[in-house]
Structure formats: C-alpha cells, structure tokens
Amino acid sequence: MGIRPPVSRFPLFVPLAALLLSLLAPPAAAWPVDLSVSLEAGKERFHKLSAVEWVDVEDPSIATAEVLAGSNELLLTGVKPGRTLLLLYAEGKFAVWRLAVGAPGRPPEPESSTELLAAARKACPGLKATEGSVRTLTAEVKNARCREALRALLKTDAYLARELELTFELPLLQEQLTTLSPTLKGQGLSASYRGAGLVLEGTTTPEGHRQALWELFRQSLGRVPLEDRVTVERPTPPDAGTPSDAGR
C-alpha cells in the first residue's frame, strides 16, 4: 500500500513575493527545488521574506546569499555563470531554491530534460507529465529504478516541488531513510518515519544541523511532513573578562 507525501499540497515558499513559513505545514525538503531564481553575474537581487533564521549556499563561488541585519530581507548576488542551491531555514521548516546565474546581459541557459523525462517514463509506468506554461508530473514510485530515474530528472530545471504529485511504496521510503542514516548518525542525529511523517532528532552543532538538512534534500525524493526535534548546541563564547594564558 502506498502513502502519499504532500509534495504539491504544501509548497514552502510562494514565488518571490513572501515566504509564508509560519502558515504552512513543515515539509521535509527533497528533490526537486521549491523555487528557481535567475540571477546575473555581478548583479544583486533582493527578496523580502516573512521569516528566516539562516541561509546556506552550496557553492558560494557561483552565487552568495545574505540575510540583511535587522530585517527579513535576503540579498542574492550572482558571482559567475552556473547553478547552485540555496537552503533557507526558519521556525523548524526549510526549503531549497536553485540559483541559476547567467553571464552579464544574458539569462541562464535552460537545462535540457527531454532524455531524462523519457527515461523516467520507462522506469515509472503510468507516469503522467505536462510541460510548457503549466507543468505537472504525477507518478507512483514502486521501485528503486523509478525513484532514481525521477531523482535524475528532478535535479534539472524541469519541475518545481509544487508541480509534483508522487505516491511512494512504504518499503522505498524506508530504503531511502537507510541511505541517510550513516551521515545523520555522524552528526549525532537520527531520523525515523512516524506515520506519514519524518522525525529528525538528536543533539548537534549548527554546522551538523545544516549538513543533516542538506543530506535530507540531496538523498531524498518527494516530501513528507517533517518534525524537526533537533537540539542545536552553539559554542559558548569565550569570557572576555578572563585573562588569557598569554597574559599571565
């Protein structure tokens, strides 16, 4: 019997205008991205968010992101042509955007997904997909071959998270979780499915928390509601009033 993660029911971000993080169910991010943003090398772009705690860019040599102090405004800067990912986190929820950077005066070149879509159709019998101005993809993920074919397709510009409707067989979700366990364990964390949701728990550093969320996204397909129970321990700042050994 399959279970249906709410891949298109609860998109985490509304396009460009605002991020309604406080109003939506907390999805666990996975391929594909929530939003694709086009940038130009050497230029900046601002986005006003309703809530954000921190952001992390996968490859800052392509683009950078900064939350402006005292506001929920996000500053994106294109550095050089290419593609990278941006992870955004607030109030126990996270999402991933694709940042596509084009050369000065030229938009980013779109990625071709024709062959990957054809391969996904073969691997996932019954897959239904529409392209153009209104894009949708519906599929039943019954085996690892189908899952990996879809993961390859959804790493491209072909679809956004809100355009998908995926149904998973429970053993495949458990198998997907098994691939995540070693990395999560290395960060002092664990993940488990409770009903149709995913619970992430344990104690780790801010960097370990970020790495765990990146791993959830990179190794997973589709989404399930996420309950983030992680305790993040921040390093204790040194006591400025304590004399250092060098001063003794």
From TrEMBL:
Residues 1-30 form the signal peptide. InterPro entries: T2SS-T3SS_pil_N (IPR032789). Residues 227-248 are annotated as: Disordered. Keywords: Signal. Transmembrane segments: none annotated. Pfam families: T2SS-T3SS_pil_N. The keyword Signal applies. Residues 37-99 form the Pilus formation protein N-terminal domain. This is Pilus formation protein N-terminal domain-containing protein.
